[in-house]
């Protein structure tokens, strides 16, 4: 999988959408046709929409796993694999934490949609993630999506929240934000919190932070993405 480079420059614009809840839902109009499983291999399409106005996502990452796996826990320190992705968009370490995974090849720009496919012999749960690259260490995530009982042509869908990894100070300065040409991952953790929490957004120049490299365009509200999972086979 490709790593996110520091040359995140020409960023497209989309439409900001206010957060309306992150409860997962089965589509009542398309819960699946109940066709008995014939093959053990199941094919899923994962569709991710960037709902922000000015926050591109690092390559969307889909992790397949059992119920014992957790990418993060609220209030606990982020793993080094999560830190690497949340600070610099590099998902290679996260991909190595599970047996099956897939990821997009490039940045998902605001307002855009990416569709990924993943085939699984023993389908249990999926986790969706990616970095908001106009931040210091903010990432989108929905973890532990239960797909074990999703029937053929069935659909699962939800909005997705943004989280703060708690590993880097939210200075929003050009030297520390990857999309502004700043550094990405830094092994040093200079955020006193050092735990994962729900993101409260970014502070821009318009908000009075003179050292911020961000404008009103990079503000966002939770949720930041919309995910739809469809079982195709």
Q: What does this entry look like structurally?
A:
Strands 1, 2, 3, 4, 5, 6, 7, 8, 9 and 10 form a 10-stranded antiparallel β-sheet that branches. The chain has a single domain, classed as F-spondin domain (Immunoglobulin-like). With 233 residues, the protein is mainly beta. 6% of the residues lie in helices and 27% in strands. β6 (125-131) and β7 form a beta hairpin. It has helices at 80-88, 92-95, and strands spanning 25-26, 42-50, 61-65, 100-103, 113-120, 125-131, 138-146, 155-164, 197-198, 225-231. The longest helix has 9 residues, at 80-88.
Query: Largest sheet at a glance?
Result: 10 strands, antiparallel
Q: Tell me, what is the CATH class?
A: Mainly Beta
The CATH topology comes to: Immunoglobulin-like
- The amount of helix comes to under 10%
Low-confidence stretches: 1-22
* Class based on secondary structure composition and strand pairing: mainly beta
Rounded Rg: 17 Å
Number of helices: 2
Number of strands: 10
Named CATH architecture: Sandwich
Helix and strand run = EEEHHEEEEEEE
Beta fraction of the residues?
Answer: 25-35%
Q: What do we call the CATH homologous superfamily? A: F-spondin domain
| Average pLDDT metric | 87
Q: Based on CA inertia axes, which overall geometry fits?
A: globular
Q: How many separate domains? A: 1
